[in-house]
């Protein structure tokens, strides 16, 4: 695991290597005779980790640098959506400030302004008025507040409807759905406060009928994979479609080149087929020969974060209660590290996700919340309304 955390320390050897230090990673993998590399986050994919390992002859799972542009360049993915007629938020891409300002003057507000490049969740900003939009564009494109990431932008209409994260796995030819999830972006209950990387999630979404899942697969995911192949950048790995289910049907707001966080924590526990078998089928281009099964159970995950996240927060506090949980509770570590005496300490923004499966969403939700209150660290905060489905 590179770099790993207190959770992975129990199941793997943690390597103190940054996930974008491709040279150190390939050297270490060669030295340790690693059989297979699985890439989690977007930064190493965008940096070309897959190309490097392939060149070194080490099997690796994920899209190469050119294919990862579907996430690492929003202007690329916007152009792809438009060219191939994939239903999406109406929008346009700009590399010049003045052209972006001229365009935004013609729009109805609010609009979303998105930095082209990776921005660790800070790249999508909503503008409620024209002066706001001009200020955001000037910040990104002239003052370069997000560096090179914001030199180009995409401007999108604001969509209404339920938001859904859809997942598919592909070897570039066969596209298999991996079910979908709902993510909670805002930091506080009732969707209040600033956007975060995600404060909790559940799967399956209660509104994801088989018909909806089929439409998303056929109208969004499969066309995107075909489009990438036609563009000369065949896509292999996991494709994450960020969608809004609008009155006119599902519309894409973005693609990611990986599983989501915290969606992974509620998707993978529902997977009945061995993940390794799936990964090997993708790497060997034989996904068409595999049947992937997803359980009917529901899964709910709640993220614990330090108070003040995502703005300013302190870390380094001991976490207690991890040993006092019911047997079927899953704890996924994120921003944790082992202290000198092997104590688990907080070390990052989102600290851990507590997840559970149940026959229904309500059962899974109940299990998570009955356990999460036993875990404590100074200033810890979590949302209380994850998977709380309001009846209409
Ligand atoms: P992104 O970085 O594109 O994932 O955007 C972050 C979050 O902003 C999304 O998960 C949505 O909740 C929201 N968002 C982004 N684009 C749109 C849009 N066109 N319409 C409505 N909400 C959006
Ligand atoms: N939960 C959103 C993401 O992984 O991008």
**Beta-strand residue percentage:** 15-25%
How many domains make up the 3D coordinates?
Answer: 4
Provide the low-confidence segments as ranges. none
Count all strands and give the number.
Answer: 19
For the record, what is the CATH homologous superfamily label of the largest domain?
A: ATP-grasp fold, B domain
CATH class of the largest domain: Alpha Beta
Pattern of helices and strands? HEHHEHHEHEEHEEEEEEHEEHHEEEEEHE
Q: Outline, from the CA principal axes?
A: globular
Detail the topology: elements first, then pairings.
Elements: H1 22-31, E1 37-38, H2 42-47, H3 49-55, E2 60-61, H4 69-72, H5 74-83, E3 91-94, H6 97-104, E4 111-115, E5 124-127, H7 130-142, E6 153-157, E7 162-170, E8 175-183, E9 186-188, E10 192-195, E11 200-203, H8 210-230, E12 237-246, E13 249-256, H9 264-267, H10 275-283, E14 298-306, E15 330-333, E16 336-338, E17 344-346, E18 352-358, H11 361-372, E19 380-381
Parallel strand pairs: 1-2
Antiparallel strand pairs: 3-6, 4-5, 4-6, 7-8, 7-12, 8-11, 9-10, 11-14, 12-13, 14-18, 14-19, 15-18, 16-17
The site of adenosine monophosphate has 14 residues, from β4 and β13.
């Amino acid at each position: 695991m590179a770099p790993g955390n207190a959770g992975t320390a129990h199941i793997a050897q943690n390597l103190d290597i940054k996930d974008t230090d491709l040279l150190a990673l390939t050297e270490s993998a060669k030295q340790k005779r690693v059989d297979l590399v699985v890439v989690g986050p977007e930064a190493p994919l965008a940096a070309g980790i897959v190309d490097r390992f392939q060149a070194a002859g080490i099997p690796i799972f994920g899209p190469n640098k050119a294919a990862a542009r579907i996430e690492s360049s929003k202007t690329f993915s916007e152009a792809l959506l438009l060219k191939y007629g994939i239903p999406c938020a109406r929008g346009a891409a700009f590399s010049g400030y003045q052209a972006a300002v001229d365009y935004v003057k013609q729009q109805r507000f609010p609009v979303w302004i998105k930095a082209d490049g990776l921005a660790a969740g800070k790249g999508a900003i909503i503008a409620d008025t024209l002066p706001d939009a001009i200020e955001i564009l000037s910040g990104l494109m002239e003052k370069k507040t997000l560096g090179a990431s914001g030199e180009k932008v995409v401007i999108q209409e604001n969509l209404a409807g339920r938001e859904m994260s859809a997942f598919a796995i592909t070897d570039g030819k066969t596209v298999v759905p991996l079910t979908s999830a709902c993510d909670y972006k805002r930091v506080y209950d009732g969707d209040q406060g600033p956007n975060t990387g995600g404060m909790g999630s559940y799967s399956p979404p209660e509104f994801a009928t088989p018909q909806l899942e089929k439409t998303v697969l056929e109208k969004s995911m499969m066309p995107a994979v075909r489009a990438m192949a036609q563009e000369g950048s065949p896509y292999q790995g996991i494709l994450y479609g960020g969608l809004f289910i609008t009155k006119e049907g599902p519309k894409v707001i973005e693609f990611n080149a990986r599983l989501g966080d915290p969606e992974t924590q509620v998707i993978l526990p529902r997977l009945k087929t061995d993940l390794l078998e799936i990964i090997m089928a993708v790497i060997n281009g034989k996904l068409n020969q595999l049947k992937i099964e997803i359980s009917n159970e529901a899964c709910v995950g709640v993220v614990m974060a330090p108070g003040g996240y995502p703005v300013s927060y302190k870390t380094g506090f001991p976490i207690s209660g991890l040993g006092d949980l019911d047997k079927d509770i899953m704890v996924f570590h994120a921003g944790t590290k082992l202290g000198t005496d092997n104590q688990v300490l907080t070390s990052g923004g989102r600290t851990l996700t507590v997840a559970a499966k149940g026959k229904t969403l309500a059962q899974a939700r109940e299990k998570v919340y009955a356990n999460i209150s036993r875990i404590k660290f100074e200033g810890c905060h979590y949302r209380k309304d994850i998977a709380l489905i309001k009846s209409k």
